[in-house]
Amino acid sequence: EHVVESGGGLVQSGGSLRLSCAASGFTFDHYIVGWFRQAPGKEREGVSCLDNSNGNTYYADSVKGRFTISRDIAKNTVFLQMNSLRLEDTAVYYCNAHRVLPPRDYWGQGTQVTVSS
User: With contact defined as beta carbons under 8 Å apart, do 27 and 76 qualify?
Assistant: First the structure.
């Protein structure tokens, strides 16, 4: 059981990328799936999350209005659409799937997003 991220890459400032987080060996039902990022020399920070139990979403202030989290239930995948990318969005992006009861927690290996000027 694990999650796998994909979709990172190099993009110019103002451009867009879409990250994917696919579950393998389990389904995202009743999981909160979140995207986190870590820039060099900085702590890992939460970017956005989606509660698959009710569809509620959350965004960090720094990405509100630019990033959109969504899901494809049939594909058991959560997406992070990132628009109007900025230099400060450069980081390794990680997917996390978390369930409270019974407790489960999965982290992906990370995908690099680099925004250039």
Answer: yes
* Structure confidence by residue, pLDDT tens digits, 97-115: 999 889 999 999 999 999 9
DSSP 42: S
Give me the half-sphere count of Cα atoms (radius 13 Å) on the Cβ side of residue 51. 7
What is the C-alpha separation between 11 and 3, in angstroms, rounded? 24
- C-alpha 75: how far from its chain's center? 16
Q: Which has the closest alpha carbon to 3: 112, 80, 92, 109? A: 109
- Residue in the block written with tokens 């925004």: 115
In the numeric block, which tokens belong to residue 17? 């990328």
107: phi then psi, degrees, rounded to nearest 5: -120, 140
What is the rounded distance in angstroms from the CA atom of residue 78 to the CA atom of residue 68?
A: 11
Kindly report, residue by residue over 26-36, the tens digit of the pLDDT: 999 999 999 99
